[in-house]
Write a structure and sequence with these properties.
The protein is α/β, with parallel strands linked by helices. The protein is built from 17 helices and 18 strands. It is elongated. The structure holds ligand C2E and calcium ion (2 copies).
């Protein structure tokens, strides 16, 4: 300790009679550095001093403080760190007249990876993504994990860039982070939102919000990309909130109608069943397509009451058709995974069928592959119970998600609908053709009916017939139509019976 510091200390003890402080002793030859606590009391002419080595306690306290700001899984700084540090960095950037960019990063469909590989592997994926990102983010650019699959990078020395270069480098690092691991076959991608100080905001909260809005835009534009904040994205979110409010009212006032699209036997050309597709009969905007509101209904869970409305409408429509003497065919209804979280869908279906005196075999539910991902969970149990009631299970948009053959079999899946994107490429793209053929042969092996959706051309139809696909659905045969058009379509042939192939 420097001499004058000691001198000052004793002078203080003389005047204050009692002094307590902590001091640091740097490492010297064989002696390690350490922190000490010192207490001095003046008693008459004597000064009694006690000195305690507090190095360990001090280290523990530091470690605790560091841990509180560190994410245990990845070792990266966490949200607390960001909350504490970002305002300081912004103040420094402001004083230096520098720009600062915030990159909000979110892995795409990480939930699927977690569901398919389990949470422990999910954690390993996160740790390896974090490591890959750390390799491209230089020390001075700070990388933090906010929780889950959300990360943030602070670029605090932007000279002339806008964060795009860094965003691209991070995306490619993330994409390559799985190489050589068990989860290599799951494509790892991320979406990013970028906001820049000072143009998008001056304080930390506004800037974080702007990056979040840009990220949301990147996600809704199909993911795996980055977006810079723009005021029009914020407007879009406000519009969405408005849509949500309107949708809520529309459900209360029942402004929905069902259209029905025939499914046709690919061999005979005859009506085999139909799919119920919802339309919003908006008082001012006219008929609105589900593409404009189903996603919002899912995000806000409004799809649950909406789904109940759909079931009620379909069942009462079937009763009307039957009363008109129609030889009733099965109707399939699109169901969201959210509707399988408890038994309310099953109760609803049971009640509606009973109320209208309908047999359960007249109803089928269409679900996407992702609804079956929570193996062993409530959704699967509900699906099994629905199946036991005699309700058919059909997999929609097949080929776009992950489902296993064993799952198809154990769940007793009745129908697979090949996704439109593959049908669209038939006759143009060899791979899609092989894929469709494979699905058809899986169907044959597992005794599952294969349906091709989105059939628009005669070439596609001929291709599918040649493969032995069971049923076709698409504009070539019929668009979705109002209920009153269905009885006539049930009777007419859609094409001449194909020669046996
Ligand atoms: P989806 O279940 O895959 O339904 C097929 C969509 O493709 C329908 O669009 C249908 O009109 C359209 N489509 C049929 N044939 C062709 C074709 O040849 N070419 C093209 N380009 N499109 C064709 P829609 O009716 O607009 O429905 C869109 C999506 O909204 C549906 O996709 C489904 O995911 C969802 N949806 C519709 N009704 C309901 C519902 O009642 N409940 C829920 N949860 N979702 C629904
Ligand atoms: Ca469907
Ligand atoms: Ca579909």
């Amino acid at each position: 300790m420097a001499l004058d510091a000691q001198h000052n200390f004793f002078l203080r003890v003389k005047t204050e009679r009692f002094v307590e402080d902590e001091f640091y002793v740097p490492r010297e030859r064989r002696h390690a550095a350490g922190w000490f606590h010192r207490r001095a009391v003046l008693s008459g002419q004597d000064i009694a001093i006690t000195v305690r080595d507090i190095s360990e306690a001090r280290q523990q306290a530091n470690e605790l403080a560091r841990m509180a700001k560190t994410d245990t899984l990845t070792g990266l700084p966490n949200r607390h760190w960001l909350n504490d540090t970002l305002p300081v960095m912004l103040q420094q950037a402001h004083e230096a007249g520098q720009r600062l960019a915030l990159l909000a990063i979110d892995l795409d469909d990480f939930k699927n990876i977690n569901d398919a590989l389990g949470h422990r592997n999910g954690d390993l994926v996160l740790a390896s993504v974090a490591k890959a990102m750390r390799d491209v983010v230089p020390e001075k650019h700070r990388l933090a994990r906010l929780g889950g699959d959300e990360f943030v990078v602070v670029l605090d020395d932007l000279v002339d860039g806008d964060g795009s270069t860094e965003a691209q480098a991070l995306m490619s690092a993330i994409a390559h982070s799985a190489t050589g691991t068990v989860w290599e076959k799951f494509p790892l991608k991320a979406s990013m939102g970028i906001s820049v100080h000072p143009c998008d905001g001056k304080d930390a909260q506004v800037l974080m919000q702007a990056a979040g809005i840009a990220l949301y835009e990147a996600k809704s534009q199909g993911k795996s990309q980055y977006r810079h904040y723009d005021e029009k994205y914020a407007q879009k979110i406000r519009d969405r909130t408005q849509l949500e409010r309107e949708l809520q009212l529309a459900i209360q006032h029942d402004e929905f109608v069902m259209f029905y699209q025939p499914r046709v036997n690919a061999r005979t050309g005859r009506f085999s069943s139909m799919e119920a597709l919802i339309r919003w009969q908006h008082p001012e905007r006219g008929l609105i397509s589900p593409d404009e509101f189903i996603a919002v209904a899912e995000q806000t869970r409004l799809v649950i009451p909406l789904g109940e409305l759909v079931i009620r409408k379909v069942c009462s429509q079937m009763a009307v058709w039957i009363s008109q003497g129609v030889n009733m065919k099965r109707v399939s209804v699109n169901v969201s995974a959210l509707q399988l979280h408890d038994d309310s869908l099953r109760q609803m279906l049971g009640n509606s069928l009973q109320e209208h005196g309908l047999h359960a075999s007249l109803i089928a539910i269409e679900l996407t592959e992702s609804s079956m991902l929570d193996e062993g969970g409530t959704a699967i149990r509900e699906l099994q119970k629905l199946r036991e009631l005699g309700i058919q299970l059909q997999i929609d948009d097949f080929g776009t998600g992950y489902s296993s053959l064993s799952q198809l079999q154990s769940l007793n899946i009745d129908v697979i609908k090949i996704d439109q994107s593959f049908i669209r490429k038939l006759g143009k793209d060899y791979q899609s053709e092989v894929l469709c053929e494979t699905i058809v042969s899986i169907g044959r092996t597992l005794d599952i009916t294969i349906v091709a959706e989105g059939v628009e051309t005669a070439v596609q139809l001929r291709n599918l017939q040649a493969m032995g696909c069971d049923e076709v659905q698409g504009y070539l045969l019929s668009r979705p139509v109002p209920a009153e058009d269905i009885p006539a379509l049930m009777l007419q042939p859609f094409f001449e019976e194909a020669d046996q192939v």
